[in-house]
Structure formats: C-alpha cells, structure tokens
C-alpha cells in the first residue's frame, strides 16, 4: 500500500497582478516625469496649470507607452494604433485632472500642486483598467 501525500503547488500570482505591479512601477517613472515637468512649467515659467498639465502629461504618456508596450503587456504589434489608444486613455487622465483643477483649485482655492499630486493615484487606476482592456487587449 502506497500512501501519497500531495501538496497543492502554490499558485502563481495571476497575470493581472504582475501587470499591475509593472504598470505601477512604470507609471511611477511617468508620474515623476509628469510631476517634475509640471512643476517646472507651472512654477518656474508661470505657465497656466491647464497647459502645463497637458504638456507634462503628454511626456509622461509617451514614456509610459514605450515602457508598458515592452515590459508590462509585451505587445509590439500595431504600435501606432496602440499608441493612439494609449494616448486617448491618457487624455482621460488630462480631462479628469483638469476637472479636479476646476473644482479644487479654481473652486476651492487649493494649491494646484497639491491637486495635481492628489489626482495621480485616481488617474493611474482608471488608466490601468482602460489600457489593459482596450490599448493592449
């Protein structure tokens, strides 16, 4: 009589978890780039926060697309279409942040730098879902 004791292998983390971790790390580099450029444009040059946000976010989007295409979603096909979709998703982030500027900076007088920094986690979560389901599907 043989007795076998089977131990269930430890399940690997779901693919989405790994993607989310990479997306967040890459997003961190884009956020840092976005925030530094925003601070420079808005604080040093006196550029309007809406325009500074659009420019700084565009740089962050381009950075994140290149890195996510390669490392997070490992997709190198249809790069132009994917970039356009990724950028469209990025525009949702610009729009959301601009709405937050209108509500909190213009409406309540909260410093634009704080609003920009506070918007980043919300924008990151929204964009991950949209990019995973549409840009890199």
UniProtKB/TrEMBL annotation:
Superkingdom assignment: Bacteria
Keywords (A to Z) from UniProt: Membrane, Transmembrane, Transmembrane helix
Residues that span the membrane, as ranges: 20-41, 84-104
Topology in membrane: Multi-pass membrane protein
Compartmental location: Membrane
Entry's family note: Belongs to the GtrA family.
Name of the protein in question: GtrA family protein
